[in-house]
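Because showing beats explaining, we let one protein speak, sequence and C-alpha cells together, and leave readers to judge.
___
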Amino acid sequence: MPRLQDIAVKVESPDGTQNSHGNALPILHEIHHALQRFSSEGEYCCIDLRSLPFGPGDEEQLLQLLGRGEIHVTMDALGESTIWETAFSGVWIVDHRNAEGERVALQIEIGSVPKIVFSQQEDIVDAIDRLEAKLKEH
C-alpha cells in the first residue's frame, strides 16, 4: 500500500511554472557578503544547502543564478563528490554522494579552493612514510 510520503507533489503557479519559496535570493545575498569577507579578510565560508528550508524550485533557482564556471572536479572517496566553480570566482558547489549514489551533502564553499581538495596533514605524513619505503626499495 502506498504511503503518503511516496506521493510526488509538484507545486506550480497558475501560469504552469514551478513556484519558488523565495529562498534563493537571500542565499545569494549571503554568498555575496561571504565573498566580500573572503576577499577582504580571507575568511572561508561554507553554506550547507541541505540544512536550509528550501521549497520546490529554490535549489534549482539558486544553482541557475550561480551558473557554471570553468572548473569541474570529480573525486571518488567513499562515494563520488562533484565540485564545480560557479560563474563567480571563489564560489564553489560541492555535491557529496555515498557509494549508492544518494546525495549526503550539498554545500556552497566560498574560498580559493574547496577544503575537500586540500591534502590533510595526516595523509601527507602517511605519504612521506610510503615514499620513504619506496625509496628504500630502490
In short: Strands lie at 45-48, 72-76, 80-85, 91-97, 103-110. Residues 2 and 8 are 11 Å apart (CA to CA). The chain has three helices and five strands. The helical segments are 24-41, 58-66, 121-137.
